[in-house]
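Re: export button greyed out
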Amino acid sequence: MGINHFKRDDRDVKFILFEQYDLDRLLTYDAYKDFSKEDFGMIVDEAFKLCREVLGPAMQDGDRIGCKWADKAVTTPPSFKNCWKTMAENGWIAMTASPEFGGQGLPVCVGGLISEATNSANMAFGTFPGLAVGAGRVIEAYGAEEDKALFVEKMYTGAWGGTMCLTEPDAGSDVGYLRSKAVKDPESADPRVYKIEGVKRFITSGEHDLTENIIHLVLARIEGAPLGTKGISLFIVPKFWVNPDGSVGELNDMFCEGIEEKMGIHGSSTATLNFGENGKCRGILLGDPHTGMAKMFQLMNEARLGCAVQSLGLAAAAYDTARLYAKERVQGPPFTNRNAERVPIIQHEDIRRMLMNLKSGTEGLRAFLGKILFLMDVAHRDPDEAQRKKADHMSDLLLPVLKAYTADYTYTLIRDAIQILGGVGYCSEFPVEQYARDCKIISIWEGTAYIQSLDLVGRKLGLDGGKVFQSWIQGIMDMTNTYKEDPELAADFKRLFKAVGVAGEFAMKYMSYFQDGRMRLIPTTTTRFLDTMAEVEIARCLLDQALIARKKLAEVDPASSDGLYYTGKIAAAKYFCRNTLPGVFARQMAMQTEDTSLLDIPEAAF
Amino acid sequence: MGINHFKRDDRDVKFILFEQYDLDRLLTYDAYKDFSKEDFGMIVDEAFKLCREVLGPAMQDGDRIGCKWADKAVTTPPSFKNCWKTMAENGWIAMTASPEFGGQGLPVCVGGLISEATNSANMAFGTFPGLAVGAGRVIEAYGAEEDKALFVEKMYTGAWGGTMCLTEPDAGSDVGYLRSKAVKDPESADPRVYKIEGVKRFITSGEHDLTENIIHLVLARIEGAPLGTKGISLFIVPKFWVNPDGSVGELNDMFCEGIEEKMGIHGSSTATLNFGENGKCRGILLGDPHTGMAKMFQLMNEARLGCAVQSLGLAAAAYDTARLYAKERVQGPPFTNRNAERVPIIQHEDIRRMLMNLKSGTEGLRAFLGKILFLMDVAHRDPDEAQRKKADHMSDLLLPVLKAYTADYTYTLIRDAIQILGGVGYCSEFPVEQYARDCKIISIWEGTAYIQSLDLVGRKLGLDGGKVFQSWIQGIMDMTNTYKEDPELAADFKRLFKAVGVAGEFAMKYMSYFQDGRMRLIPTTTTRFLDTMAEVEIARCLLDQALIARKKLAEVDPASSDGLYYTGKIAAAKYFCRNTLPGVFARQMAMQTEDTSLLDIPEAAF
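Workaround output, generated via the alternate export path:
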């Protein structure tokens, strides 16, 4: 156990839950009707207590002790056992999963925002419960009744862990090229039992000592299946075979060959798993043959959301470390009064600039995340099918944007946090350098920024004949039109209006490139298009928050803690629109050059 | 000894030395007239051999074994001893220092570009020789004859190390607040000997086992001296006292209290040094009392240049790792041909985009660095005083720009290199994650980006009544005017013309803020102004290179290695002007908002 570096308060989480989006609507849904706002408030309070008292103090153990591999086994830091036990016993592992299998049945918006906090407290640890639940959900969604009965509750309640095994040493982003094989097990009476053979690499939480069993979801190709992603099937491969009565049987023919040495998340094991070296690894086919990729995509979608939650959690923790440090650390006078006494560095203009990057960045990303979380609740639970579909489409459009932008932007924000601390920010005495190291992997997990941008341009732009994207643009234009004469924020809404126009311009360009055969110009700018959409959406979310805050501010004492919070909210929106959002116009200019230098340069000239 | 990760070739270094800037002019100077271009070519070849064979293979030892502190002593990795011995024996430690004291007397441009390579090979190790020479130079410049005789040659030839001791636990960027004290030593016959007392923190290479002695340059306040930077004096404080006959005497009253645990550069010791705990630490006053800061600034100026060299070295190494990986790693088909075979990922459009960031970024920064290095040679050695002054002023103006921008931009570039490698980029199997960790400190060393930007705006803009900045602007405008009808690059020159106008607009704004009392708006944008100048200068340097390359390309086979190099050069200039330079216009827009949200927000709202 170490020092708790989790310093966050829950004000911004409660603003999103109780003041920004329409929680009342969610509470009318059958699935949530037994909850009240008070329940959610109490659950958030308890979660923050868990972060402070249990997860936070184990964070640096994860980094410094780390996971150790020896003789096929992985040992996690001792304090991680306590984290697991506490989370399992108190129902924190599967907050939003179905109560039928031991989940807590919370709305996605509540669970998602709590996850952001637990990731602030201990992101590396969070990979273990995160994958247990994620894999459990796939079995719940696609498994036969007997699979669900055998596995799901154990995975939701912390008895067993879980993984997703896609990547192989020779197949990463192009998972369709994987080599793992499956053949029917002639010794099994159950036609769904196969023998699995293959090596999987970079398997997060792939081996550990937190649970008595680990349930691997493994992508493999059934002998004779077509090449590419269409020939891939999904298998449940338990580390220890599970008998029909639910008892844990013999060790499957699989083992952990080793774990990676990494830049960060030393507390999370990144395993190479060898399946079927002796031809005896048994796996259970999950759903129909050759449908594995689609199923894995469900888990990957959840994991993409998880990536945003993880990286935002780290940046939020970095912001808190930086702002508390800046209030305490006394150094020379500010720029505008060079002869003054030394002051806390929060009074230094450039420190404030970086703090505002962190404040507007983390709050803006959280508002964006909150929006998608609410959309998901509507998409899953609303009684009106049209509403469900609309919400589902919008969250589908925005999810790759959220994932890719959050992962990249938070790396930059954490850099600012290090810079605010100066020399000590580079030292392990403070946790910010660890946040930077832990954060970097997230831009690679679950599809890189580029892969997200291809999903956006290749699949999501065309959703419902392009109407989803159009309605996203229209929604923002309507808002900017409503507030274009706003006495305080008119210029910001005008800038947002221009910025959303740039997003539209990108989309129009892509259409014309498709039509006139200049396809090669598309992939050179898709990440820029994605970043543009992200900044536009964040600006919109922050302005939405500012409008709410302004109303509330009129009702409270500006010097009260709520008053200060609302004042800060308005400042964050202004700052983002005036300092970060202009980046959109640099991307516009770059796009308009239609530069092909990167395509034209001969390979040998690199 | 480990694997050599240094893969660079010297083509770009030789382009800058032999094809871009006017080396012939330098060779007419007295100090350099005994050298020839062939000499420099051979020296560069030898330096790259040193990198491949000695420094490179020790790089990961620095990270993995690291420096260890125990009982006041610091142990460096075993392979570092061989690095030191080889560099010392072959004259690599003090390449550009004066031959009178054992230096090699090479031009700054040759030494600087070689240093960039040695930092690519082993940046952490490089801090030891770097500070030995830097401290030696200060003694050479300001020391009494007997000090020079005692210390300088030993420091230039690798017998002794050196440090600069500014930072204290309670005084970092505001060094004027330091508490270290000096009182005349009543027991010494020499009136220049003082007793030093104080604790210095974050002292790079502050303690190690590479040399028999370490000569610390310590900033301290002589009893009764005024507060602030004007009351600070500089002292030579040898770890072991040096007797007048040059022999090494008893251990001074000082010791290393410990070293920092850090994000990176584990191979470089970052020491806390305790001077005079028993009231017996002897130091020699260097120059006049209360003039310490000015002298330390010489070392800091050199160190700022060193920071650019270090961070560029790391980014260049990251680029090489990434481009070689991209040529070998085979994955799925590119965007424009989804049904193609798997190809090396260098054929993937987004991988190329990131490689072009790295190529244009590192080559552009190197050209910018090369320009300043040449200016320094002219400033130090040209027989014409007017030329010396002009070059000195221009390098003075640009040095803070180079330092701050290089340190920040390379962190982003190395992020791209990690991304190109994907999952393995996050793992220690490849060196890129180490480059990212090593690099981050450089934006804090020798003045943060903000401090550099204040130096730029507060001191450098006004150099020679503002004429230096004006001539910088004019030079770029003249160039853009000359090429505004260029058949290939006209649009790029026009964009550069607009961009340099933005730099001018920033400066005009600052003037008006000064005049109308809106000083508070200045520090909110100085880092953006600095970044704008940097990108304008880099674009100019790359376009200059492209013009040279285009001429040369007409004379060689385009498929030859030179032909490919020149083609790549032109592509890099285009790419930077079309994709990176537009960032200037986002900063312009942000500046024009004159946003004060970061100043207005109450401290408690953070």
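Chain B touches chain A through 95 residues (CB under 8 Å). The button fix ships in the next patch.
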